[in-house]
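Researcher: Please translate sequence to structure tokens.
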Amino acid sequence: MVRLRGGAVAAALMMFAVGAGVAGCRTGAEDSPGAKGTAAGGAALAAVDSLTVKGRAPKTGYSRERFGTAWADTDSNRCDTRDDILKRDLKDVKFSDGTCKVSSGLLTPDPYGGQDVKFVRGRSLVDIDHLVALSDAWQKGAKYWDASKRIALANDPLNLRAVGASANRSKGDGDTATWLPPDKAYRCTYVAAQVAVKKKYELWVTSAEKAAMKKVLSGCPGQKLPSGGNPTSAPARFHAN
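Model: Translation complete:
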């Protein structure tokens, strides 16, 4: 047996760490934007080919209200969806009402911008982003759904992530072909999550979107497809206009 001295051991460990991931892409489960603790659903790159490719439908008829009241408590845990995601994604969380209403916390780091962002309730430095924007979903299948499925998508933890407001507000309703997080290290995780949501809800993609997804994920072929989240139908007590 060959015994490595201290410097050689460190070098060997560094080589292993680089080989275990793709340079410039975070691939750890801690970055998955779905419900924590759920099993990965296989390679995200392979899953892209399972998505239907069609042209973007008109935005006619879209409004946020078509997806129900914002942050509805569809999982019936007596906390609204926004607070659920803040509790999941922030560190050093403090509450103003038991263990539900988040008053402050730290987003470390903001997955889109890469910087730490302090959350204080009432100040718009942290947003809850729909990874697949609701308007994008509307134009790629959701306009034909019943209200229950649209409400489920809008409140599914698999499709939600706490992010810095500054970077997020440049996204609009962009898909992978038109917008990616400024922090390049997060792009593999971000695109894998979009693939997972579109696959789960049977939303289609445009040809440009599919090509952009494959381009990003080809740089991290080991990136896993996140899974979990809520059912694709909201409880019957919820309604949308």
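Researcher: Any highlights?
Model: The chain has eight helices and five strands.
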